[in-house]
Amino acid sequence: MFNRIRKTNNEFDQGKKELAKVFFELEEFEDAPLKMALSTYESLRESTKSSEDFFYYLIEDSIFTSLYATFYEKIFQAIASHPERALDLIDSFSADVDEREQIIATQTQHHLNFVENYGMCNGCSSCEFHQDVAELISYYQRGDINFFTELFLGMQTMQFAMEYFLYDYIPSNPAYAKLCGPEYIQYWRELIYNYCKVKAREL
């Protein structure tokens, strides 16, 4: 039994190393995930007319990309469960982009209203998920732009990395499907977010 446990742990550790390698390999690309996130951040800052607008859109985009990450988690979980259907699942996910982004945009607006109203909601279709963003209220009340900068860069980088992994890495090497389970993706998210927190403090 203990040998089986050690083998499982060794496989998990090896999988984490492979995912870490993928991310830091992506960071060597000309269009690296963090580089694109920083570019998006600068574009947002330059396009807003005031610091208040910038803060508002920083929160809105952070919520949007956070919600988008949950959809990536679902497709990765589906691939892990059905690796033989990976390409079909990816094609279906790609085809649903417009519908998915409309759903996310609606949920984002509902969650943003909830945060702006300090946790009050008169009833909306996203009520059951408001607790997912409740922790943002205190940062919003304090006007903590550093927190939302970290969140924005972390979630943007995560989305770009997940996009690369889904559309480029898995189709070219189906063996990556074994790294799509929830425990692997949770590790990858934490790795990317912690990396971005450090980089955000350098701004």
TrEMBL record:
Organism, as annotated: Halobacteriovorax vibrionivorans
Protein name in the entry: Thiaminase-2/PQQC domain-containing protein
Superkingdom field: Bacteria
